[in-house]
């Protein structure tokens, strides 16, 4: 089983103690996002978890506890943009996040910290020139601390249309997006970075930008030292190249407050969930109710641990 921690909320930034407590307990409860009364009990022992994929904009709170992950394979998807507070209002300063990125890389290895520069959005302030300049500055600061960068252009989901409309988002023509992507690729390679796209609908063919698998079977196989027999995740968009995983996050729980985020539907809903946060509970930001149905879920290992001769 590959554990996704998490596409739905920033667990390393805000709920790292909860997650570490769940690891110590050996299980976690995962709530069905469609039917919240359905709860799955997910085993977390090292022999059940093939790899943990962390997603975060600020994993600094987890840095003091990395030793507690020593029995697990894991890597980080670290989103590091250069937007101001109007877009990413509650993140630490850019300088602090760059420092966290570099420290994390030095402690666990640059191959296990992947830089995400996404989503790329356009306004009168956040122009192509803005992205080119700041991407170059970030690439220079992160040189030697990561091997790859993942980019994507903003997808406007129905649930975020209202908050996005307040930002007066622009939709430049395809030619402008392709030109920007081409320049970002040139910059990335100049600083020793491979560059990939994430579930990207924009045609980037011929620009030396390959589609990525953020939950990447080849990287996980490399960390494990053995092949991984994983299928494409059918719960993700068709453009997504990720392999199957189990996500333990809950929507409407991320305090980062990023204006483009698809995982938070409304500020009151987020606040309601945060008020229920209990680091000793096996369920994130939600109370267990009598009507909840809890089922044990068994997930076989996806690693091919036996030597194959043919």
Question: What does the model show?
Answer:
This protein is of the alpha/beta class and 310 residues long. It is 26% helix and 17% strand. It contains eight helices and eleven strands. Strands 9-8-7-6-5-4-1-10 form an eight-stranded parallel sheet. Strands 2-3-11 form a three-stranded mixed sheet. It is globular, with a radius of gyration of 19 Å. It starts with a strand and ends in a 14-residue tail after the last strand. The mean pLDDT is 93.
What keyword list fits this structure?
single chain; 11 strands; 17% strand; eight-stranded parallel beta sheet; 310 residues; pyruvate-formate lyase- activating enzyme; 8 helices; alpha/beta
Give the topology, please.
Blueprint: E1 2-5, H1 11-14, H2 16-25, E2 27-31, E3 38-43, E4 51-56, E5 74-79, H3 94-108, E6 113-120, H4 128-142, E7 148-153, H5 161-165, H6 174-190, E8 194-197, E9 210-211, H7 217-224, E10 246-247, H8 267-274, E11 293-296
Parallel strand pairs: 1-4, 1-10, 3-11, 4-5, 5-6, 6-7, 7-8, 8-9
Antiparallel strand pairs: 2-3
